[in-house]
Amino acid sequence: MKGYYWFLSNGAAYVSYKPINADYLERNFYFKPKKNLRVPDKSIIIKIFYYLNNNIGFFPVQEDLKIIREELRQIGHGSVEFNSSFSPGIGLITLHNSERHNALSGKMMAELADIVDKLENITQDKTNSKDENDLVALILSGNGNTFCSGLDLGVAKNHIVTPENGKKMSSLMQDALLRFSRLPLISIAAIEGYALGGGAELTTACDHRCMSATAKIRFVHVKMATTPGWGGGGRLINIIGKTNALRVLGASELLTGQQAYDIGYIDIIAKKGETINRSKEFLDPYIYFSPKEGELDAERRRNSVKAVRGMKAIIAKANDSGMQRNFMRFEHTLFCSLWGQGENLAELLKKKVK
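RESULT FIELD:
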């Protein structure tokens, strides 16, 4: 049975699909382990982050994300849908939970992770669909007149209020959004209405952002006595810099479309209700070579799918550093030290949910 070879050292794990021998480890990691172990796929309890060409990774031990995903799938309502044929070369991901302003339930988190799995398979040529094989870009949007109001507070109060469950949620969402950001597909968030808390974090996982003039973005975490738990803090710094990120995070500043544009957070300001159309227009140069007015999409010359995906892969690889992973672990640990405890617990419990 195929398994992972791994050993533990100082609370971290090294893993490979191939046998690990002591000489290799001494040569590459400067010490010899006392014991090598092999475990089958079905019982592995750690998630592998690949970042070396030889497929050996270094990471903290954590619970199996597949198990966490299935646990969260049972919680709450709403859905996340993916349309690979939205427009030539462009797929559309839509958050559906209108009664909660598209807040994410556990079910929606699991479905988002499912979609990332599907997109990874698509970009690895594991599909026969023409629309999927031609895909080079994604639009992330919320159904109706709002983007995403973060975590569904009804779900939080009833199911994810404990520190342990908060840790599970953070682990799944960090992994899903990290993998989403690494996809060799250009992504843009189409922001209508509000992007709050976790919804604001979702926007940072995209390469570009289009925001309506009347929309608002706010990292409300400090008001909830916690910190970003889905990896949005570090990504925000990369987008707008340390000084601006400190204001947006630490002061929980409410950003209008113009304010977000002025600090480099968003790429486009659109009219209300036009963010998806404007996002599609913005993505056009990634899809078509030298477009001409009056031509139908079917008549226009397409850019090479492999080349465009390759360009995004270069950018993603350049950002894929050990420092990024270390910061995400730090962000996760800090969030887990606050969630479901003390002031955060009090804030969660006093929130009224319709």
